Amino acid sequence: MRDQRVWREVNRRNRDWLRPWEATIPPPTPSGPIAHRPTYRQMVRHLRSEANAGRMLPFVIEYRGQLVGQLTVAGITWGSMCSGHVGYWVDQSVAGRGVMPTAVALVVDHCFRTVGLHRIEVCIRPENVPSRRVVEKLGFREEGLRPRYLHIDGAWRDHLVFALTAEEVPEGLLRRWQRARSSSTPHDNPA
User: Fold this and answer.
1) Which of 44, 112, 132, 191 has the fewest Cβ atoms within 10 angstroms?
2) Where are the beta strands (DSSP E) in 56-106?
3) Phi and psi at residue 153, in whole multiples of 5°?
4) How many whole angstroms from its chain centre is CA 11?
5) 3-class SS of residue 64
C-alpha cells in the first residue's frame, strides 16, 4: 500500500506509452455485471488475496532504488500442469536498459527453482515490438497465435504465445540472459 503514490505517478507519466498494451474491462453484457477498473487499494487487495491462495505472484520492479514497473505471474495452475503466465510493464524512461529482461529472468528462475512451476507463458500483442524483444532476448519459444485473446485498449486483441519450460533453462534464465548480454556488442545491448 505504501507504493501507491509512486505507482500512480509512474502510471500517470506513462499513460500514453502503456495504453495500447494495457488490459481493459470489456463492456457489460446483458447477463453480466457492470465491471469497473479497480482502485489501487482494490488492486493490491486482489493481488494479495490471489498470492495467498497460490494463484499469483505480484512484484514491483525497482531500478536504482526507484519503482519503475510491475511484473505479475498470474493464472498459476498446480497439479499436472504446474504453470503460470507473466505480464509486465515498465516505465518508458528505463526501457531498453535491460531492466525488464532481467526482471523476467529473475522471476522465471524463482518460479522454476523455488516455487516449483514447470512452464511459464508470456502472451503479447503481435505489434508490441518492445515486449516481443524481451522474450526474444530471453529465448522464449514462440508457440502460436491466440485470436482475440484479451481485452486490451478497448477491444479484443490477438496475442502471440511465448513459453519456456524448466528443462529449457537448466542453468537458469538469469544466467543465460547475463551470458547473452556479455557476449553482445555494446550497440546491441544498451546500458
Assistant:
1) 191
2) 57-63, 66-77, 83-90
3) 50, 40
4) 15
5) coil
Distance of CA 188 to the CA centre of its chain: 23
Residue of 89, 161, 88, 76 lying closest to 115 (CA atoms): 76
Q: What is the pTM of this model?
A: 0.90
In the CATH scheme, what architecture does the domain 4-183 have? 3-Layer(aba) Sandwich (3.40)
Q: Which three cell numbers stand for residue 41?
A: 487499494
Q: What is the DSSP letter of 184?
A: S
22-32 pLDDT tens trace? 988 888 766 66
Can you tell me whether residue 88 is helix, strand or coil? strand
What residue segments make up the domains of the chain, in order of their start?
4-183
Residue with cell 487499494: 41
Which amino acid is present at 34? I
